[in-house]
TrEMBL record, chains A, B:
It holds the Pfam family MarR. Residues 1-149 form the HTH marR-type domain. The lineage of its organism: Bacteria, Bacillati, Actinomycetota, Actinomycetes, Micrococcales. This is MarR family transcriptional regulator. It comes from Isoptericola hypogeus. Signal peptide: none annotated.
Length: 155, 155
DNA sequence: CCAAGATAGTTGAGCCCTCAACTATCGCGG
DNA sequence: CCGCGATAGTTGAGGGCTCAACTATCTTGG
């Protein structure tokens, strides 16, 4: 790539980009810590359980879960392995497609979700929602929605 | 934590929070991919080299680097180990504090930074900067700056 | 109806990160 | 000026993630 042809970032862009980098890094570290200190599931496991809790019959096939959570299939397989061992989810065949696997939330998984939710939401408020005013939160949502779309198109 | 006392997120907050989650996840995955496919250093190594390039004598002590990059000391030690083996940085004693270690960028490190910069900036534009309008970018920067501060206070 | 490519998911090796324990040095209160 | 808590950085074991290879099943064009 030609160095002279690159459109470098101007000062404002550079500033915003670096705040984004630092902010996301520190935010996810702190949120992860909140889960590790006192909640029964990690942040990633929590998001997985949330997706299942909102699905019909509290079950989704692996590929759908991977897509919703933006995880690689391999990573999801490993994560579900661990959660299955702890009794939070089970695996079942998908009716009508013998390649497929349905991941189903158990009652213990639901209990873990319910137990983790207050601490999780409290941390998300403390670290993000309550730190921003409503306009900033809305703009953040809209902006990141665009970003997600751009990144998805680039896959 | 009492379930009934929790201030849950309203619908708009929930929406924005989920867009933020998905957006950051997909963004960093795509940016990491851009580095893995064709650039001589990973995203993390790139950020480390950027910090060094802006420091006097292209050197910083480990603790300062860890702080700027929001990395644990241990992680930084391991990362610098690997980069040192590849000749991108070297370690030197800090004059006046025999506990300290200065991490110094080599010429090869500088070359790697220069080689990676165009691809990096192009990807950041494609995935973030050019996707947002100027107002959104500014708000994003200000918002994440607040978030970084909140997370830092919580350490 | 079948061959070839696409899709679903798993596997295991290797790499990177985390965590706790450790060494070494600094600096301050008494 | 000494003892002790704080600070700087490293180490290695353990665990999670990535990547490529693999099996199994589905689907589609001819």
């Amino acid at each position: 790539m030609d160095h002279d042809a690159v459109r470098w970032l101007d000062e404002d862009q550079q500033w915003a980009w670096r705040r984004f980098l630092e902010g996301t890094s520190r935010f996810f570290e702190a949120l992860g810590d909140a889960h590790d200190e006192g909640l029964p599931v990690t942040l990633g496991e929590y998001h997985l359980l949330v997706q299942l809790s909102e699905a019909p019959e509290r079950a989704l096939r692996m590929s759908a879960l991977a897509d919703f959570l933006a995880l690689s299939r391999s990573r999801l397989t490993h994560t579900v392995d661990r959660m299955e061992k702890r009794g939070l989810v089970t695996r079942e065949p998908v009716p009508g497609d013998r390649r497929g696997v349905r991941c189903v939330m158990t009652d213990a998984g639901y209990d873990a979700l319910v137990a983790a939710a207050p601490g999780h939401v409290t941390a998300v408020r403390r670290l993000l929602v309550d730190v921003l005013d409503a306009d900033e939160m809305t703009t953040l949502g809209r902006a990141m929605s665009k970003v997600a779309h751009a990144a998805k198109g680039a896959e």
